[in-house]
Design goal:
Length: 160
């Protein structure tokens, strides 16, 4: 398909220039997610739901229960700090145990002794890049989880 575009000259005049264009009339979008995790110590962030429904912490130690009282989880969405959530007092993750932390509006929540609800926020938030950091009660970073979504748009040219 060919169209014309008006191009201004340096002397102030304009001219019509033919421009070749492809016509795209259908396509699909694919999402590919990748993540990076890092931990200093026995507690790690093993999963962050892409829709922001929950986060799962894990104690990788087979011999020591980990007290995570007053630890902070900081969430950064697309480069902007969304919020900070402080874990409640007297919270312990048992050996090889997990702690699932739901957002308030996560939908069907299966509360078990190893899960809590973050009442202060509806969800953990979502975006193209979701960064989650775990800090101990002294403000030292103990773990991180970075989830990156890449959108690939596949377009199909029309048969015109």
């Amino acid at each position: 398909m060919q169209s014309r575009t008006i191009i201004p000259n340096s002397n102030g005049r304009t001219r019509l220039v033919p421009v070749e264009q492809d016509h795209w009339d259908s396509g699909e979008v694919q999402t590919r997610s990748s993540f990076k995790r890092h931990a200093k110590g026995n507690v790690s962030i093993v999963e962050c739901d892409p829709q922001g429904k929950y986060i799962i912490l894990e104690n990788t130690s087979g011999s020591v229960a980990e007290d995570v009282s007053n630890f902070e989880i900081r969430r950064v969405i697309d480069g902007v700090q969304a919020f900070v959530f402080r874990l409640p007092s007297h919270l312990v993750i048992q050996q090889h145990g997990h702690l699932k932390i739901y957002g308030r509006n996560a939908g069907e929540i299966n509360l078990t002794p190893d899960s809590i609800v973050m009442e202060s926020h509806a969800s953990w938030g979502q975006g193209r890049q979701a960064e989650t950091f775990l800090y101990n009660s002294h403000g030292i970073e103990k773990a991180s989880h970075i989830l990156i979504d890449r959108f690939l748009q596949l377009l199909h040219p029309s048969s015109n």
